[in-house]
Amino acid sequence: MAKIFAYTTASFPFLLIVILFSSTLTTAKSDSFSRNLSPKTLGVKREKLSHLQFYFHDVLSGRNPTAVRVAQADSTKRSLSSFGLITMMDDPLTVKPEISSKLVGRAQGIYASASQSELSFLMALNFVFSEGKYNGSTLSILGRNSVFSGVREMPVVGGSGLFRFARGYAQAKTHDLDFKTGDAVVEYNVYVFHY
């Protein structure tokens, strides 16, 4: 018994350090704002890959435009690329190129001319779906849209509803562009992983 007591007494400073360090870790954990979760906790099931195709109608002309210019720099009018122009949009999304075709949602957000050398937009928008199983769900897009390129690719950076934890990409291809009014119809093909 004496050996155990002697060992314990000799180890006392070490044990004290271990106990203090352990209590510090416990305290640090309880003050933390994050924790690891199992995906099952949130009802996350098997990941799927979905393809969505629709048409985006950006209407700048007429009595009820769906996109309006909200800001520009003094130099924007002299810029061939409209550098500095910012536009707010609430554009309809339809199943076919005709604006009268079935509405599946809206593209809500902003685009800004972000290049001094070409017409290229910084796009920050949400696709807000209003049809079928995706009704009420959104996809968030943030990326560069070089307008006169054949197909432009922008990342899907998130989503809500059925698109929680979404990631993927959107391809935009101009279907029709009226150079006089600026009105455009753009075909979107969106490939998105979600649960």
Automatic annotation (TrEMBL):
Pfam families: Dirigent. Residues 1-28 form the signal peptide. It is found in: Secreted, Extracellular space, Apoplast. It comes from the Eukaryota. InterPro entries: Allene_oxi_cyc_Dirigent (IPR044859), Dirigent (IPR004265). Keywords: Apoplast, Secreted, Signal. Transmembrane segments: none annotated. Dirigent proteins impart stereoselectivity on the phenoxy radical-coupling reaction, yielding optically active lignans from two molecules of coniferyl alcohol in the biosynthesis of lignans, flavonolignans, and alkaloids and thus plays a central role in plant secondary metabolism. PANTHER family: NUCLEOPORIN-RELATED (PTHR21495). Belongs to the plant dirigent protein family. Homodimer. This is Dirigent protein. It comes from Salix suchowensis.
